[in-house]
Amino acid sequence: MIAPLALAALVACEPDTPPSPQRTEPPAPPAHALPTGSVTDTLPVPVGEDAVVARTPRRMHVDQLQASMEQVSGGIVWIEDGDVMFDTLAATLGKPDWITATTEDKTPGLLFQKFLDDAATYTCEQMLERESADPLDPALLVEATLADTWDSNPLAIEANLAAALLRWHGRQVSVGDPQLEPWTFLFASTLLVSDGDTWAGWRAVCVGLFTHPDFYTY
Amino acid sequence: MAPSRRNILTSALSFGGGLAAFGGLRPLVRLASATTQPNLADKYYIFCYFAGGWDVLLGLDPRDPDLFTAEKRLETGIDPGYDRFVGPQLYPVSLGDSVTVGPFYGSMANWIDRTAIVRGMSMDTLTHEAGLRRFLTGQPPSGLLARGSSMNTALAAQLGIDAPIPNLTMNCETYNADQPAYASALQVKSVDDLLRVLRPGDFDLEPNARARVEELLAHQEACGISQTSPTRLDAYDFRLGARDLVQQNLDELFDFAAGSAEMTDLRARYGFTGTSLATANAAAAMAATAITSGITRCCSITVATSLDTHYDDWWRFHGTRQQAGFDLVAALADDLSSREYQGTGTSWLDHTVIVGFSEFSRTPLINANTGRDHWLGNACFLLGGGIRGGQVIGASSDEGMQPQAIDLETGALDPAGEIPKPEHVFRALLDDIGVTDDVADLRVEPLRALFS
Lengths: 218, 452
What we know:
Number of helices of chain A: 9
Shape of chain A: globular
Order of helices and strands of chain A: HHHEEHHHHHH
Helix content of chain A: 40-55%
Oligomer: heterodimer
């Protein structure tokens, strides 16, 4: 039942989408949506038809990925059984040890994808647990709460998705922008298949943002 | 129906109409199109790396210590050094009429009828990294950087995408410079790593939510910048592959720490415990399991380490370390030969080629520190499926163990022939499965003497 919904709701590719005025003249970013730390030193780069692609994207190396996930999540470290997994898996993920390996393989390979997904699902679960217990300094639920649904507060949900897109991917979009539609569909369709569980909806959005190449390539 | 990526892709394509509507079909078509690669033979490969530069005088290319004495070493440039080891005088071991091996060849002697040894090879380098990459790719590295794809990758590309993991390595380098992405090796450092890849994460999404995320990523992959970026296209293919693996419930096959009778037997056969899953022994068990369960076509493992013995560690440890590697390969051959190949009456060993190699060998003379340094010459062995066993191809010279030219068709010494190099072996492996084009840009003829 969901597949036809997916077909109906998913929007066309961005190149076919008429450029929105916000792309050429981006508004000032909302201060609350910016993560703290050094990444705030650079404003988001406008993305759209005016953007010039200078080279093919590169995958982050493992240290960059680890730092980025911690930064975006507000300091959550991927830990299993007391071990920091990015350290445990460093050699497997191709991080050089400067003894036997001096270069890092930055292929976004199968192993990388699996562990990125594991890291994302862990981190997103931890983010939601933290923010449901202490909503004062949120990283994910910035504009919406777990109580907000499409029926009760659609604007808050769209605003939250826009804030998340800025925080995770550095893409500045406003509410109503077509670029938000895949993400609104992800949230809405996940609610649909999880009996309106907003936790599941935001968790799916969070995992999608982390595992999207806009997050781990630059 | 046996698990395979093709099965998964076929089922994925059955609802491809839906995916196509938002652009998600293309990557599946791209993956599935790989099945048009010729599936040329029921052949499997295990590459066994002896790390650090092995001493071929102790194994693959021995000399009689009564002829190559210490007194003659300035004349011959060769000192077998067998008298340096503690215990009774060591001698080469004769295996049949035509093959003699060193005193640390171990249980591999049992498989000499299925083994071809290539001697007198040239590596053209004395640097570990360059030698290893030279052997793996059959091409001289550019500095230390590998050029070309490694043998496992090129073979996996030819053998197609049917296996869930076409190419698997544990603690062994691998390269993909010019082959399809599906042929890139899954590189793990331990069996635990492999289990992590095959199992869902502890915090995985609920299946319906997972499906929604995958739909979004498929849609995004089909759009905009992704279509102009090989990195992003590959990333999405790899993501699909990772999801495929998790869905196939293959992890139980590699749960080597389990207490079942099957796993207990496996651990005993290969000599490891449930807590030593990053060892060479566990790697060999992983290779056998992955091959015989149809999960992979090419597997590369390191079977011996710490062979770079420039000092007294040469006579203290080199022989036993090298023999441990040979014994492990023999255990692998024992295992494969004991398992029937898909109800054909033949064994898995009949269909699996085991290639044993090191980056180079060690100097034929012992240095001032009672060890051996790096040597340009080398040897290697091939065992199993289709190999013309019980033969030695080529020879190092009796003065300084220099590489010598051979006839590539017969393997006999021939001054008008070519010095054997890794690329001749590489090309022969491809030639054996009917790949006559130089798909790996090796620019040599195959060493056809290797195969029956």
